[in-house]
Amino acid sequence: MTSSAEPRRRLLLQGQLVEVWEDPHLSFGWSEDHLEGYIDLGAWVSLFNAVMLRAAVPQPALGS
Q1: Could you read off the pLDDT of 15-52 as tens digits, one per residue?
Q2: CA–CA distance from 14 to each of 8, 31, 55, 57, 63 (Å)?
Q3: What pLDDT sits at residue 32?
Q4: Structure-model confidence comparison of residues 53 and 60, the more confident one
Q5: Do 7 and 24 form a contact (C-beta atoms < 8 A)?
Q6: Alpha-carbon torsion angle 41, 50, 63, 12, nearest 10
Q7: What is the reported pTM?
Q8: C-alpha dihedral over 2, 6, 12, 16, to 10 degrees?
Q9: How many Å apart are CA 49 and CA 39, to the nearest integer?
Q10: Which of 26, 62, 18 is nearest to 47 (CA)?
């Protein structure tokens, strides 16, 4: 269940619209800094979601 305090955000991911709910006190992202922040906070659900989204987005090859 979501509350009005959790703003919704829509992302286009590989041609599919994905809706995410954000914690108003911690913006959601899947950069390495975000992942480390989730680990430090023990925010395991956010970490899992970020890892899954990061895995779905093609990453540039190393050295490019």
Answers
A1: 888 887 777 777 788 899 999 999 999 999 989 989 99
A2: 19, 17, 12, 7, 24
A3: 92
A4: 53
A5: yes
A6: -140
A7: 0.57
A8: 0
A9: 12
A10: 26
Q: How far apart are CA 35 and CA 12, in angstroms?
A: 20
What residue has token string 């913006």? 27
Please report, for residues 42, 46, 52, 59, the alpha-carbon distance to residue 34 in angstroms, rounded to integers and kept in the order given.
12, 9, 13, 16
The phi, psi pair for 23, rounded to 5°, reads -70, 125
Considering only CA atoms, which of 33, 24, 1, 42 is closest in space to residue 9?
A: 24
